[in-house]
């Protein structure tokens, strides 16, 4: 996907790619809405469309939300586009509520706040009142209609939350209590794994197989932290390489957004600014989720990143601005 996007010669092609990605995500969200509106157990019904796990679904929604928020805040003269973005965001907000993913809630809030900032830098004003009231109303309707949802939401931030929340992801794990302390045990195991294999780790995708040796209940699971997982599976060398990659990508995305802002390129602000926010959200969710594990959300994320990088490369060629990595 990355190589294909780098062959694009027109910015219009990248805009069409973004529309295609948003359309695919929208289909996934709409496919899951019937089960979402029933607020039942998703494990049995598999109502998440192209995504099979609640945390992954929440991460997908959060990483794509900035683009829709930016359509809502930047395209004030495109009424149809804003209405479609608002309706899809409302569906995504309701879906996010029923994932009971705390990282997803935080990431969705970051998408909203970050989009407001980018829109403010582009327009010099905060266009929040109208869209904010409509979006909040649409997202709060399920809570008013189904009061028990609020109880489940409150339980996600209480002690031993996984014992009470109606969440599909942990119905198969009866051998351990799936509350926040369970992740702490997994993270401690990852650190002990890294102590025994500091340079090269235990091997890629071997964490789950090695975890029973380091968990007090001999429990198999994934690291639930991208950085600790990289340290345990690939050692210091892989973690350092991953951090360098993320730093370079951060610089590129930030520079690209600034170039689009300087050129007053509204589509560029949407694509480059949205990708920059999506990258920040990926970093946040990676602290409690294995974001880079193969899956639809990962594929969609990297296609969006590749498209944004190519769009900015075309802009820099036109402007004559060098890449920040050449400095």
Q: Could you give a short description of this structure?
A:
This protein has 327 residues and is mostly helical. The protein has 13 helices and no strands. The protein is globular.
H/E element sequence: HHHHHHHHHHHHH
Number of helices: 13
Structural class: mainly alpha
Shape: globular
Mean pLDDT: 77
The beta-strand count equals 0
Enumerate the spans where pLDDT stays under 50 for 5 or more consecutive residues: 41-50, 161-181
Q: How widely separated are the two ends?
A: 27 Å
Radius of gyration: 21 Å
Q: What does the main sheet amount to?
A: none
Helix content: 55-70%
Beta content comes to under 5%
Oligomer: single chain
How would you explain this protein's 3D organization?
69% of the residues lie in helices and 0% in strands. The chain is built from 13 helices and no strands. Helix 2 (11-38) packs across helix 5, helix 4 packs parallel to helix 6 (102-123) and helix 9 packs across helix 11 (226-262). The longest helix is centred in the C-terminal third of the chain and has 37 residues, at 226-262.
Topology:
Blueprint: H1 2-5, H2 11-38, H3 42-45, H4 54-74, H5 79-99, H6 102-123, H7 129-145, H8 148-155, H9 180-196, H10 207-210, H11 226-262, H12 266-285, H13 296-319
Helix pairs in contact: 2-5, 2-13, 4-5, 4-6, 4-12, 4-13, 5-7, 6-12, 9-11, 11-12, 11-13, 12-13
List keywords for this structure.
single chain; 327 residues; mainly alpha; 13 helices; 69% helix; globular
